[in-house]
Amino acid sequence: MKSPNYLVACRIGSYGHYVDEAWIHLPSLGIRHIESKCPSEEELPVLKKKVLDHGMQVSSFHCPCDIKGEDVVGKMKSQFDCFAEFDTKVCFTSVHAGDTPRDLVWDRLREIGDAAAARDITVSMETHPDLVENSRNARTTMESVRHPNIRVNFDTANVYYYNQGISGIEELKQTAEFVGSIHLKETTGEYRTINFPTLGDGIVDFPAVFDLMGSRGFKGPFTIELEGHEVRDKQGQLEHVANSIEYLRSIGAL
Q1: What is the rounded average pLDDT of the residues 8-23?
Q2: Residue 107 in contact with residue 147, Cβ under 8 Å?
Q3: Would you tell me how many other CB atoms lie within 10 Å of the CB of residue 205?
Q4: Phi and psi torsions of 58, nearest 5°
């Protein structure tokens, strides 16, 4: 696989208890894009200084989206306000509709999409229940909302976590036209099991993920997401990140 200049980022939370180490560690490994939670007004100048001091860029912000709330559109708009400060174009979010009538959900998502489009932002919905946890539901949601700024964040591990008897790459093929961002997360493939190892140590066919999306002209962001319950000391966590990045380099993604 030959890299067509993919934008590969790392979710800052991938450092677990050692987030402060990320600002020096990631650039040393050739990664200069991050996914961060959307900062509050007080947090914004602190984050901006760190980004500038370390030569980093925020490729995506994580924004809460309570689609059940009547004020969800206004709250999303207020979170979008900081994106221009960082030249960030992707909003990563998780949306759970529950018993909310789907027509109301679609209307609210379209309003959020309009607000995002006005700021040149793409909202990417995580591979979570109950709207995009698999390709069937993702397609239903995307085809119902019908908004180019509302997309799917395809998580390469979550699709196995929430579903049984599936092929991750086949799920991606069915979803690819709606993908706005990708989380690179490894898995052993066990249903509802929080076992997310170092990239390359599980069952995800990462070369196929890059080949498929690259063939569609998709450049990213592909964001490394490392999580799980395994407790590591600082050196172990740094190696966990470094080994995942080295794996991506070995397959030509970097």
Answers
A1: 97
A2: no
A3: 14
A4: -90, 110
